[in-house]
Amino acid sequence: MIGTLKSLRPTIGVFGRRNVGKSSLVNALIGQDVSIVSAIAGTTTDPVEKAMELAPLGPVTFVDTAGVDDEGELGTLRMARTTAALERCDAAMVVVDEAGLGADEEILFAALRSHETPFFVVFGKADLAPPRDADRDRLARDGIAAVAVSAVRGEGLAALREALLAVIPDEGFETPHLLGDLIRPGGLVVLVVPIDLGAPKGRLILPQVMAIRDILDADATSVVVKERELRDTLARLGRKPDLVVCDSQVVLKAAADTPDDVPLTTFSILMARFKGDLVAFAAGAAAIDRLRPGARVLVAEACSHHALADDIGRVKIPRWLRQYAGGDLVFETVAGRDFPADLSPYALIVQCGGCMVNRKQVLLRQRRAAEQGVAMTNYGVTISRVQGVLPRALACFPAARAAFEAAAAE
Amino acid sequence: MIGTLKSLRPTIGVFGRRNVGKSSLVNALIGQDVSIVSAIAGTTTDPVEKAMELAPLGPVTFVDTAGVDDEGELGTLRMARTTAALERCDAAMVVVDEAGLGADEEILFAALRSHETPFFVVFGKADLAPPRDADRDRLARDGIAAVAVSAVRGEGLAALREALLAVIPDEGFETPHLLGDLIRPGGLVVLVVPIDLGAPKGRLILPQVMAIRDILDADATSVVVKERELRDTLARLGRKPDLVVCDSQVVLKAAADTPDDVPLTTFSILMARFKGDLVAFAAGAAAIDRLRPGARVLVAEACSHHALADDIGRVKIPRWLRQYAGGDLVFETVAGRDFPADLSPYALIVQCGGCMVNRKQVLLRQRRAAEQGVAMTNYGVTISRVQGVLPRALACFPAARAAFEAAAAE
């Protein structure tokens, strides 16, 4: 599922003139000293790679380059290496010091644009001098984002992380597997696909197709069956499957028909992991038990779809949650990209399956909720929770199961 | 797969004033006398249904209605029934006699338009009087097709059949099953899906998805496996599958790995049946053996796709057919809706899989080839033929297999 990303983890180039503090900036972000940092211009002779965990994205690699204004024969070699680094970057930051923007930066901007590499500018020595208005205007003219940071004082690092997350292409947030990583080669997965009136004629829905494909890619076999035929199919299968994946709608029946020693999960939970942070969603589901009448619940739908009569987000989930709360709740629904900045009024946020959003959007929403201390879960996790099968449905995701149980025990 | 069609077989309403010869016309088409036909106006009191085989479409139902100008209390009742007939028709013909078009026909045209029912006009007594210029002009103004027929002399019936085929909506030509009709409830079908570089990332191709869905709709189970895992999966399956369906690319390996007593076919052959007349395609494949160097072969592609390096229609099939002919052949390729009227220069026509065309288009092309006595087959049938596995791949389609063997023995 990695689109145009050049490496398996996003690679972020750190560009700028010599001695503007590129290495210090990366080290301040990472909190460790990997490069040789000195005040002698051009210390970083070759591009140096450094990795860090950039929550909520995961690991990213910084390529800390030599200064673009390197001079002499060695400088030419360094420049060639810098250009090579540019070619494998998924995103970039251009670091400037108190001298501000000049001809070297314009050359970098042009090079980054010609490589179609998204980038932003870091004013890295904000302690020495704040960015000049002329520089801010010049960036605004081309819509180039900028942050002011003091690496030595450790100021502005949160804004820098935000800018990094914003600039990394969406596919940098993608995970390559829906479930392929759960299966051994030669394994067998049973997929339980109910065919109801809502099923598209002659088709399967996307998570089902993605699952079958991912199982093939994992050199494994899938068995596709309706819920009515599950018990009989399992009995006649000749061997125990490695995993049963069912539609959330039929999770109770599937759980009843699947032997206890066979791992079982739902397409919705697989999609919750694929499109977001399942561990955080699982922990968030514990808040369902703490809902009290009158609590506010935010239902976040990714698309403004035509609501069906028995709509999952508008009808079913509110009904289940009211039953859990033992009284009425205040539901607010947002659709599309409308996601409130202030989440503090809500006792719980329930995000939709997110088939129409990318993982980056969901992860950033989850991060915002975490920063504000608001519980956030999603449709798939909620359905398994209210049906009483969440621990079983999370059995193949031990970290998520542990997070749910820890949060529920609070 | 039946779209908006109101019945499982297309229903064609026969409308017109009393005594214009509606019943005689239908009887002339069908060649049998079902209605009471008389010269007393209004003999057909209730809509009468008559079925016929309309090649290459298959069975259609005519609803022969009472005259629209019926008078009196009984006439009102008849009119109501005529309106009810109109509501369930998929297409209609408006029959006029030597009196030509008048106010009653205009009322019918308006009613048919308001029901969005496609229709055409039949001048049914062309022996008494040819259509008037004023009437032809009036129809041309609204783009209404018309044919002149003499039911009593049996003239114009071929043109009438053409007009009928043209007016029946595309989905009237659809067949409801890709393979569901081949499987018993509780049955097991193994689908062999190779994942090569051409496979769309994270997806399956449409015939594969359609097959899985159709198997679910048939209350059966599918096992989806790559060709490499087929032998092992079959060995560990616990029971013999009812059918193995493989991608044409791997039919030799799949045939080798599947026990002889298990029916085997290809997705391409299923699609050939779904999108056309498999029996005729199978008979057409016998002409491959009779190709001689210098023969002209027409390759008909439904879409003007970007040809791949190892394109099936442009590269692979020509290569195989040259090998069969033992010398060079003259290939002509047509794309999209360009299909020659004169097919006589060709020793063979090879139609593409037709994923982008509807069954109606393919059936009409097959009919044209049959009328001109030119052999026509398709990609999927050709691939199995040149791989030497066609009889086996047609084992579950006895009529097609017999047609191939009869044509090959000629």
TrEMBL record, chains A, B:
Alphabetical list of InterPro entries matching this protein: FeFe-hyd_GTPase_HydF, GTP-bd, HydF_dimer, HydF_tetramer, P-loop_NTPase, Small_GTP-bd
All residue ranges annotated as the Hydrogen maturase F dimerization domain in the record: 178-276
Domain Hydrogen maturase F tetramerization: 281-395
Top-level taxonomic group: Bacteria
Entries under Pfam families matching the protein: HydF_dimer (PF18128), HydF_tetramer (PF18133), MMR_HSR1 (PF01926)
Chain coiled-coil ranges: none
One Gene Ontology cellular component annotation held by this UniProt entry: cytoplasm
Domain G: 11-124
MF annotations from Gene Ontology: GTP binding
PANTHER family: TRANSLATION INITIATION FACTOR IF-2 (PTHR42714:SF6), TRNA MODIFICATION GTPASE GTPBP3 (PTHR42714)
Protein name: [FeFe] hydrogenase H-cluster maturation GTPase HydF
Organism: Siculibacillus lacustris
